[in-house]
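re: ur question from yesterday

yeah so i grabbed the chain u mentioned. its 296 aa long if i counted rite. heres the sequnce exactly as i have it in my notes:
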Amino acid sequence: MIIAGLSGANGLDLKLSQLLNAELLRVESKTFPDGETYIRFYGGVSGETIVIIQTLYPHQDRKLFELLLSVDTAKDLGCKEVITVIPYLAYSRQDRRFLDGEPISVKTVLKLLRAVGVDHLITVDVHKVESLRFFHGNTVNLDPTPLFAEVLRNEVKAPIVIAPDQGALSKARELAYLLHDSEYVAFKKYRDRVTGKVVHELLEVDFSGRDVVIVDDIISTGTTIANIASYVRDRDASKTYVVCSHALFVGDALTKVRMSGVSKIYALNTVKASEDVEVVDITPLILEAVRSLTRS
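ran it thru and got these structure tokens back, copy pasting raw so excuse formatting
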């Protein structure tokens, strides 16, 4: 087995190769003056199972094309099979047509990956697991909830787990169960598909003296999380924690969340983390998934 980390591997390639005692293949990646992408493998892959790791943020389009080039090249060079690990799958939130004439972007991405030769696809907390049906091959989606529960279990007291919307309700339910069968609730969120404006229907829950854990898969602008954190702070919550799989934190999002009264933010290393975020390592789950695929 060979591990190949591209420009978005975020150190996961080195960790995985060490845990598997597998060769770490050097891959050169650069951008030509005209903006085109170049990659090169420094080492042979013929007859080998190759694990290619690439997160798709930031610079989603460039990282996606770099990944497509790498998979196609590995197949051309005679590899046995390609296992692709995408810790953050860009375009996953556009998983249906919200307005007439829109693409289903995640379908396009997954069809491209299959077309160039990905045999097995590993994702981490993809926005909707159902969207992986667009990849006509073997898929594994990793659930990080047990990792978050492990770091929170001895830190939070009498917690209430909050889902920012109904889509995150199952995450909140699972995390609450792992936190000594705690209480969980969900806000209702309404988004104007044209303007993007979001309105939350707030909850009549007694947060006084309770720790609050807000759980979500992706934090982008941070507005939703900040609004909820401010809401529970004004209702005398003790401490507020945020856990998310993919901490994108676009622009001033991190500052916005911090200013709302959040005590700690936990996020996976699926993308490069900001300094003010507690990182939870996803490598152990990737290791289990790769081992299970190579044993089968």
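noticed a couple things. The helical segments are 12-20, 60-76, 105-116, 145-152, 169-178, 223-233, 253-259, 283-295. also The chain has two domains: 2-142, 145-280.
anyway ttyl
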